[in-house]
Amino acid sequence: MSGHEKFAWASLVASAVVWAFFAMRMTDGGQIVDAGARHMLWTYVATVVLMAVAHSVIAAVLAARPHGITLKDERDHAIEASADRVEGYVVVVAINALVIHALVDAMFAGHTLPRLDLSSLPTLVLALITTLFAGHIVKQAVTIWLYRA
Fold this sequence. Notes:
The protein is mainly α. It has helices at residues 3-26, 37-64, 74-107, 121-148, and strands at residues 27-28, 31-32.
């Protein structure tokens, strides 16, 4: 397993754990809490810091090991480009799904179907940050898959 694939595995796990921290701070018993802006801002800052620290530690540990992260060759760059493209598709689809959901929800107010209240700031923040995490996690999964192919 190459150092880049090891980094993708570690990033996948770290990102899932950091997203779980974020979701834990924004929900209670599976329900989105009506958190204040200050709480959401500090949660967001903590999430960004945790992601930066986790990925720095991963890179440092892998770089310190023999045959750790090496310079990227053409195959590594091609895999990264493909994974970035898929990440972009996931984010675009998710954002469009949120926009369509908000518009349809406004058009058919009072319906009995389950809804995501995007007019609520905590719900909107959770949905947008989850979209970014979903894109990143998919990117790491695609990277792993392409190294295995």
